[in-house]
Amino acid sequence: MRLAKVRGTVVSTVKDDSLMGVKLLFIQLVSESGDLLDDYEVAADAVGAGVGEWVLVSRGSGARQQRGYDQRPVDAAVIAIVDTVSLDNGLLYDKREDSY
């Protein structure tokens, strides 16, 4: 799994039938220091995340193990909305204190 920040949504009216009804998010990966990396990705949203939230992203076959995603061409899925991230040197992220 990777940490990421939701940067926006992706809308596609023409897509594989199995992706109908799947919300797609544009995410940016986060480093262990909390900095945004130059890596972006599109992920299926399994938890109802919103723009600006930090999330956990599962990739590859792990992404397809979410309920309802096993027969879909999904390579990345948002599987959790992050509340806090703590490291040995202190708090890295707290959703309550973040101003999207």
From TrEMBL:
The tight homopentamer forms a pore with an opening of 4-5 Angstroms in diameter which opens into a wider tunnel at the base of the truncated pyramid. The pore is positively charged. The keyword Transferase does not apply. One of its GO terms (molecular function) is structural constituent of carboxysome shell. It is found in: Carboxysome. InterPro entries: CcmL, EutN_CcmL, EutN_CcmL_sf. Homopentamer. Interacts with full-length CcmM. This is Carboxysome shell vertex protein CcmL. Probably forms vertices in the carboxysome, a polyhedral inclusion where RuBisCO (ribulose bisphosphate carboxylase, rbcL-rbcS) is sequestered. Has been modeled to induce curvature upon insertion into an otherwise flat hexagonal molecular layer of CcmK subunits. The keyword rRNA-binding does not apply. GO terms for biological process: carbon fixation; photosynthesis. Transmembrane segments: none annotated. CDD domains: EutN_CcmL. The gene is ccmL. HAMAP family: CcmL. Pfam families: EutN_CcmL. Belongs to the CcmL/EutN family. CcmL subfamily. Keywords: Bacterial microcompartment, Carbon dioxide fixation, Carboxysome, Photosynthesis. GO terms for cellular component: carboxysome.
